[in-house]
Amino acid sequence: MYSTYVFIDGGYVREVVGRLGLPLPNPRALGSTVTVGGGKIRDNGGYTWTSDFFMKRTIYYDASPDDGTPASPNLEKYWNAIELLPDTQLGFGTLRGRKKSLRQKGVDTLMTVQMLSGVFNNVFEAVALVSGDADFVPVLQEVRRSGIQVVLAAEESSLSSELRREADRFVPLGVGKDDERFSPMKIDGKEITEW
């Protein structure tokens, strides 16, 4: 069993579930289905089952406005609920730009620093990255070079082929509107569908 940390790019996940019309997912459940035994992985062109990972911690990264304006109330509730999940933590970058063209800043850097710090301090034996961003190619190269197993989970239509090549295993996300990996986060018994 590989002791595993799950690194989730929240902006990426929100984009995927937004396109699929799904509620915001429970990051801990998402990490579990990607690692612990949650389903099929695509390996060498076919699908096989995996259960050789022990999820030690999930880190959900997102961004808040850097101009002092609050995030939407639903997103604030979501982040507060994530903080209460066991073995789960939040990491924050900032949102910059104009209202229609806001972009995350610092999230990829924070994820990279924490991932490499964990590698060099022998915190985990495997990492699972939930993102499709090619900016993670160099960090995954270094992580694999150090002997750490890499699982990548992403929606295939938004996945960089370079990033896919740097993973030992790949888990497809968003293969349908009923993708079981996106178990909804329930807050006060309700799912958050707007943020």
Quick take:
The chain has helices spanning about 10-20, 25-35, 75-85, 105-120, 135-145, 160-165, and strands spanning about 1-10, 40-45, 45-50, 55-65, 90-95, 105, 125-130, 150-155, 170-175, 185, 190. The protein has about 200 residues and is of the alpha/beta class.
Provide the descriptors you would attach to this structure in a database record:
alpha/beta, 195 residues, 11 strands, Rossmann fold
Indicate the radius of gyration in whole angstroms: 16 Å
Count of helical regions? 6
Query: Which spans have pLDDT < 50 for at least 5 consecutive residues?
Result: none
Total individual domains? 1
Write the H/E string, N to C: EHHEEEHEEHEHEHEEE
In helices, the fraction of residues equals 25-40%
User: How would you name the CATH homologous superfamily?
Assistant: 5'-nuclease
Write a structural description.
- It is a single chain.
- With 195 residues, the chain is α/β, with parallel strands linked by helices.
- It has one domain (2-185): 3-Layer(aba) Sandwich (Rossmann fold), CATH 3.40.50.1010.
- Helix content is 30%, strand content 32%.
- The chain has six helices and eleven strands.
- It has helices at residues 10-20, 27-35, 73-83, 107-120, 137-145, 161-165, and strands at 2-9, 40-43, 46-49, 53-65, 88-96, 103-105, 126-130, 149-155, 169-173, 186-187, 190-191.
- The strands form three sheets. Strands 6-5-4-1-7-8-9 form a seven-stranded mixed beta sheet, with helices on both faces. Strands 2-3 form a two-stranded antiparallel ribbon. A two-stranded antiparallel ribbon has the order 10-11.
- The longest helix has 14 residues, at 107-120.
- It is globular, with a radius of gyration of 16 Å.
